[in-house]
Amino acid sequence: MQVIAGIDLGGTNIKGGLFTTAGELLGKKEIPTQAAAGPRAVVVRIADLVRELVTEFGQGHTLAGVGVGAPGLHDFAQGECIFSPNLPGWRNVPVTTWLTELLGVPVKLDNDANLATLGEFWQGAGQGANNLLMLTLGTGVGGGLILNGQLFRGPDGTAGELGHMVIWLDGPACNCGNRGCLETLASATALLRLGREAGLPVKEAREVMQLATAADPRAIEVVDRYISYLAVGVASLVNIFNPDLVLIGGGVVKAGEQLLAPLREKVARLALAVPAQRVKIKAATLGNDAGIYGAAALFGDKR
């Protein structure tokens, strides 16, 4: 039997999973990235992790390929990391060339948010949808697009940067240099900031949601405003792409229908009638494993 390794490379940790080509997860492991050691050392650690996965979970099987997801801008065709903000010194790093030399199998590289979307499409909440977009609400807002059953990257590989859609011209400053990007208003970080600005004694975004559940009037107002910001972004994307499905991932979605029910109502009111009637808005289901599923999907059986 052939197996595939899916790798999710982050600034702090490297997650890896071994899969069948049909998408069954055989086993997974996580190791520290040790990014300060430099790009080559990190790629060697990825190769070592792949070998460990095969030894522990793939005995007697053939490794068919390795998919790697990493933050930043990548040349998908060349398998090169052009730049990654979370990995010091990562400029024009030939990831796939190095890994192929180390492991002797084909390797593909893509953006981590793209692959989280692809993972949900392949084996998660996106199964059955032909056109979907995903927003991951965390420190920022990650995004990805599946159009006509294919991951859409754009000619420069930058498509899907949904968190940097400007929804308020004079809004809060974003790390990208603009103001009022969706991620400054609809990320978990933004929810925490809005809660503190309203005088709530909170240390994490989830506490704002909990206070709203407990009928704190300030928290209720903050959560409503937060969901309104998110709805503006989602409605705009629904109008542009006419998707079958919008998936919401990240820690904030643990609030469940407290977040999703009012979001659906606001999007239905803000979006054009025809695409609003079609689109479903649901929670992503693969959680922190979406990235390794998506990386494996680069070599997995097509749906």
From TrEMBL:
InterPro entries: ATPase_NBD, ROK, ROK_cs. It comes from Carboxydocella sporoproducens DSM 16521. The lineage of its organism: Bacteria, Bacillati, Bacillota, Clostridia, Eubacteriales. CDD domains: ASKHA_NBD_ROK_FnNanK-like. Keywords: Kinase, Transferase. Pfam families: ROK. This is Glucokinase. The keyword Plastid does not apply. One of its GO terms (molecular function) is kinase activity. The keyword DNA damage does not apply. It comes from the Bacteria. Belongs to the ROK (NagC/XylR) family.
